[in-house]
């Protein structure tokens, strides 16, 4: 027996799901929990990453190539904490955008810049480690070269992420004659094809390509270090093994942290696909974006601080 799904049934299902989602978001306990989580992320993210920058800039001996890259990671996290973390939960819980047109464009833009800077910097660290371990007798990267790479990373990130800042719309929803104005901040691409194309390119450049490069570099480094360990029996507990242990631990931490970004992308793509299939007419669902907690800020803060403390093991 075939079951027909009418437009009314689909509409009722979508309405019920939307209402349930809104009830959860509007629950006081949920709001308090997310407020506490985001506050902790903001405080730890700012304090931890500022501390990383202070340690590196204050101590000249800490100003190595690796630590400059780590400081760049800290700066990208500070950018994310200041221009993204405070606004995300408030927009979700208030149900409207109250921060103005400029912040509407800046938040999405800052998020894109931060992710690009993080992945490109992590890739640069992996490439630097690759040449240091695989070709130990080749000249090391100079600090001036490292600074130039960091500047290029920032310029490139700001340019390629520009569409995220441009294609945002600060919209007033409601009757133009009403005295009460309610604003929303949402993506406003010229067409759906543009959005999908740019999203695909961004996913490849932000995650796929950097991940493949980092995987190749760290696999080669790991194999090289294992060969060195086997060629020097009895030296497993020596100080020469410190870089290997730090490298493996850092690589594992970075993999776990970047995997949360991968899940975030997959959740977002799944959300948009289901929304386009089952609720193309539901503006209310479109306005209620899913809430993502940026735990990667805290994780990267821990790694950044730990890496600066042990960065001499690499250099």
Can you put this structure into words, describing what you see?
There is one protein chain. The chain has 315 residues and is mainly alpha-helical. It has one domain (29-313): Rhodopsin 7-helix transmembrane proteins (Rhopdopsin 7-helix transmembrane proteins, Up-down Bundle), CATH 1.20.1070.10. Helices cover 74% and strands 4% of the residues. The chain has eleven helices and two strands, in the order H-H-H-H-H-H-H-E-E-H-H-H-H. A two-stranded antiparallel ribbon has the order 1-2. A hairpin with an 8-residue loop joins strand 1 (168-173) and strand 2 (182-187). It starts with 6 loop residues before the first helix and ends in a 5-residue tail after the last helix. The chain crosses the membrane at residues 32-57, 69-93, 113-131, 143-166, 198-221. Keywords: G-protein coupled receptor, Membrane, Receptor, Transducer, Transmembrane, Transmembrane helix.
Brief digest:
The chain has 11 helices and 2 strands.
Can you lay out the helices and strands and say which pair or pack?
Elements: H1 7-26, H2 28-58, H3 65-83, H4 87-94, H5 100-134, H6 143-160, H7 162-166, E1 168-173, E2 182-187, H8 192-231, H9 242-278, H10 283-287, H11 295-310
Antiparallel strand pairs: 1-2
